[in-house]
Write a structure and sequence with these properties.
The protein is built from three helices and no strands.
């Protein structure tokens, strides 16, 4: 396993991302991103429906 780990160039960014994954921070960020995308889609669809669809 040491041979594989030695071949990975551990830059500062890679180290920070790996530590965040290790702590589990990525789950909260992924959930927040999913909620943001969903809300943007809902709001966008509501705006389109309100402005484009004919009113009766």
């Amino acid at each position: 396993m040491q041979a594989v780990l030695a071949a990975i160039p551990w830059s500062g960014d890679l180290y920070m991302r790996s530590k965040a994954l290790e702590r589990g921070d990525w789950v909260a960020a992924a959930a927040a991103d999913a909620v943001t995308r969903t809300m943007a889609a809902i709001i966008g669809n509501a705006v389109i429906a309100a402005t484009i669809l004919p009113r009766t």
